[in-house]
Specification:
This protein has twelve helices and 23 strands. It is an alpha/beta fold and 397 residues long. The chain folds into two domains: 243 residues, Metallo-beta-lactamase, Chain A; 143 residues, Flavodoxin domain (Rossmann fold), CATH 3.40.50.
Length: 397
C-alpha cells in the first residue's frame, strides 16, 4: 500500500503482514493478517512515530522514502518497545544515526535489554510537549496498556492520538485505512475484540485508567499501531474498549459459551441436546469444539458472555485435556465471575468433574449444576440434557 495522508503533514507509512501465522508466536492471524501502523509528522523537525517488525524492513523504508529521506528524521518516538513496533530499531540506528529516540524511562531500560544499548535515547515525562514547528507533540504515559513502558503520543494542533496498541485490532488493511472508508466494519470490530481479549484483557484496569486520563484531551482521530484509523467516529472504538474492559469486573452480556470435546461422539450427542435446550430459551449461544478450535477464537465469547456450559468426557481419571487447556488459558487471561454448568460421559471411571472444579474455583465461576452419564446417552439422558440446558439458560436471565 502507498503512503496515505492522515492530516496535513501527518502520513501513515505502515505495512501489512499477511504471512505471519502466529501473532506473538501464539495467536493465529494466518487468515486475518495484521497491519503495523507507523506515522511520519513532517515539519521543521520530522518525527517518526513507531516502527515495524524487522522482516518488513525493505517495505517500511520504501514507505518512508515516499515522504522524506532518512537523514531528515530528527526523532523516533517509541510508544511501545515490543518487537512488532520496534524490531527495526537497530537497523534504523545505523541508517539514521542523527535521530533522537524518545520514550519513557522504562522504555530506555528495556531498549538496553532488547537492543543492547540506550544511546541517543531521550526520556520524555508524562505530559511533556515537543515542538516540531507547526506541530506540537505531547506524550502521555499509559503504563500496562499493555507493557509497563507504554505511552501514547498526541498531536495537539491536529488532535490526532497515536495510541499504539490501545484501540487496535487484528486484520490486515484492505486498501482503505480509515473507518469511514471501510465496508466491513463487522470484521474489524470482531478482530478488535479478539485482539483485546488475547493481548490486553488482563490489563483492563489500566485500560480504563488510560481512557479516564485522556478524557479531557480533544481527540478527532485515533491512529493505533494495528488496524483501522478512526477519523469519522473515534469515540466508537473508545466505547468498545471501555465496554470490554468493564467485563473484567462487571457482569457480561447474557449469553452462553458452550465448550465441548468428545472422544467418540457420546458427549457430542449430549451437547446437541443441551444446545437445543439453551436455544429454546431465546438466549445467545456460541458453540466451540475445544479440540479443534484455537483458544484465540474462544476467548472473546468467554469474555463477553455471562454463562459457560462445558461438556467433556473423563480422560484417564481426569478432564479431557483440550478442555483443561482452554480453562487454563481462561485463568491466565483472568476470565472471572461466570455462571457455569458441566456435563460429560465416563466409561470405567469418573474424575473429570473434580479436575474441572479445581480449575474454575480460582476464577470464581459459579458451578450451578452438573450432569454426568456413563457410556452412550440413552433417550432419557438426551431429554434430561435438553432440560439441563434450558434450566441453565433461564438462570442467566
Amino acid at each position: 500500500m502507498s503512503v496515505v495522508q492522515v492530516r496535513p503533514d501527518i502520513y501513515w507509512i505502515g505495512v501489512n503482514d499477511r504471512t505471519t501465522d502466529l501473532f506473538e508466536g501464539l495467536w493465529p492471524i494466518d487468515r486475518e493478517g495484521v497491519s503495523y501502523n507507523a506515522y511520519l509528522v513532517r515539519d521543521e523537525k520530522t518525527a517518526l512515530i513507531d516502527l515495524a517488525k524487522a522482516f518488513k524492513a525493505d517495505e517500511f523504508l520504501g514507505q518512508i522514502a515516499q515522504v522524506c529521506d532518512l537523514g531528515a528524521i530528527d526523532y523516533v518516538v517509541i510508544n511501545h518497545i515490543e518487537p512488532d513496533h520496534s524490531g527495526l530499531l537497530s537497523l534504523f540506528r545505523r541508517l539514521a544515526p542523527q535521530a533522537t529516540i524518545l520514550g519513557t524511562e522504562k522504555t530506555k531500560e528495556l531498549l538496553e535489554a532488547f537492543y543492547g544499548g540506550a544511546e541517543s535515547v531521550r526520556v520524555v515525562q508524562d505530559g511533556e510537549t515537543l515542538s516540531l514547528g507547526r506541530h506540537t507533540l505531547q506524550f502521555f504515559s499509559t503504563p500496562f496498556v499493555h507493557w509497563p513502558e507504554t505511552m501514547m503520543t498526541y498531536d495537539q494542533g491536529e488532535k490526532v492520538l497515536f495510541s499504539c496498541d490501545a484501540f487496535g485490532g487484528y486484520g490486515a488493511l484492505r486498501g482503505a485505512i480509515f473507518d469511514d472508508q471501510c465496508v466491513d466494519m463487522g470484521f474489524y470490530e470482531r478482530e478488535a475484540l479478539r485482539y483485546y481479549v488475547n493481548i490486553i484483557a488482563k490489563f483492563s484496569g489500566p485500560v480504563l485508567r488510560a481512557i479516564k486520563k485522556l478524557q479531557p484531551v480533544p481527540v478527532e482521530i485515533i491512529a493505533p499501531s494495528h488496524g483501522l484509523i478512526w477519523r469519522k467516529n473515534p469515540q466508537r472504538i473508545v466505547e468498545l474498549y471501555a465496554q470490554w474492559a468493564r467485563y473484567a469486573t462487571e457482569p457480561a452480556e447474557p449469553g452462553v459459551t458452550l465448550l465441548y470435546g468428545s472422544m467418540y461422539g457420546n458427549t457430542e450427542k449430549m451437547m446437541n441436546a443441551v444446545a437445543q435446550g439453551i436455544s429454546r430459551e431465546d438466549i445467545a449461544i456460541e458453540v466451540f469444539d475445544v479440540a479443534r478450535t484455537h483458544f484465540s477464537y474462544i476467548l472473546p465469547s468467554l469474555w463477553t458472555k455471562s454463562g459457560v456450559m462445558m461438556g467433556a468426557p473423563t480422560y484417564e481419571v481426569g478432564l479431557f485435556p483440550p478442555m483443561a487447556h482452554v480453562l487454563d488459558i481462561a485463568a491466565r487471561k483472568r476470565v472471572m465471575n461466570k455462571k457455569a454448568a458441566w456435563f460429560g460421559s465416563y466409561g470405567w471411571s469418573g474424575g473429570a468433574q473434580k479436575e474441572l472444579t479445581d480449575l474454575i474455583t480460582p476464577l470464581k465461576w459459579d458451578l450451578v449444576e452438573t450432569l454426568e452419564f456413563r457410556g452412550g446417552p440413552t433417550a432419557e439422558d438426551l431429554k434430561a440434557a435438553e432440560e439441563f440446558g434450558a434450566r441453565f439458560a433461564r438462570a442467566l436471565k
